[in-house]
């Protein structure tokens, strides 16, 4: 599997990462351990989890897998987790305050059975905690050897830039990654977030690369999903999400081109969608999430798929989100341009 650096850091990671949000929920422990084995055997190294995945069970499952594997397997794993979302009912059981993050990190280390993680990410922006407080905690955790690198997740463009600027101003460890939602059906990050990552040297770790199953080809115009889906935790929310996405003509246009490219290549649709994302600017590693080992094996096939310029251009064109003309379209670009010829 191709190796890339984790953003501007010198840490090497596999171009495909294994996400663990299904562990302890849709995937039982035996299935999760099988996925981790298959991922490691395929050359995968980056394993991404979070304290709120299955209320901590996902971290425990990963921890037991690590403890049961030989040292050479454990040593290859680049372990990432996150803190920010609620882990209890009291007011300080969430957010990016020093108080919550300290306990969240310690609890994650305990569940994972390790004394440090390679990447610790703020799971989202906290409007109530001064950014200086959160970044100082991350810097202290790095200095204490409990965290290798700090990262961000679900930050907007201005929030990302503010975090980098504050860290630089206060001589704190600068975040090296951003984890955003990004796929052929979710390209909004390209307006502000991708340029900010490129400018600051942050590597992107896209989650939801198959858009909740849409890019796998599992949904059709005439066949609505039954029960709970990856689009929502319960049937009602799943249907709402299906109706929201499935009524967009662009969705079906994108799926048609993905299917066409996949059939011409003789590969499954998910591999085409993943290969497109792997080639996008600033992407360090794409996070795969799978309910079953068979799904994971199929998705890992994207590691060896390189799309042609023509295939990429077709996918780019059909998935173009058509940003408003101002400030991102022709008018905005013209206003921000400058020609030395006068």
Radius of gyration: 20 Å
Low-confidence stretches: 227-233
Could you tell me the strand content as a percent range? 5-15%
State the CATH architecture: Alpha-Beta Barrel
SSE arrangement, N to C: EEEHEHHEHEHEHEHEHHHEHHHH
Largest sheet: 8 strands, parallel
User: What is the domain total for the residues?
Assistant: 1
Helix/strand structural class: alpha/beta
CATH topology: TIM Barrel
What's the multimeric state?
single chain
Ends apart, CA distance between termini? 49 Å
The CATH class is identified as Alpha Beta
GO molecular function: oxidoreductase activity
Biased composition (Basic and acidic residues): 333-342
GO cellular component, one term: cytosol
InterPro entries: AKR_Detox_Biosynth, NAD(P)_OxRdtase_dom_sf, NADP_OxRdtase_dom
Secondary structure layout plus pairing:
Elements: E1 3-5, E2 12-14, E3 16-19, H1 29-41, E4 46-48, H2 57-68, H3 71-76, E5 78-83, H4 98-112, E6 117-122, H5 131-143, E7 147-153, H6 157-169, E8 177-179, H7 193-200, E9 203-204, H8 235-246, H9 249-265, H10 269-278, E10 286-288, H11 293-300, H12 309-319, H13 325-328, H14 330-336
Parallel strand pairs: 3-4, 3-10, 4-5, 5-6, 6-7, 7-8, 8-9
Antiparallel strand pairs: 1-2
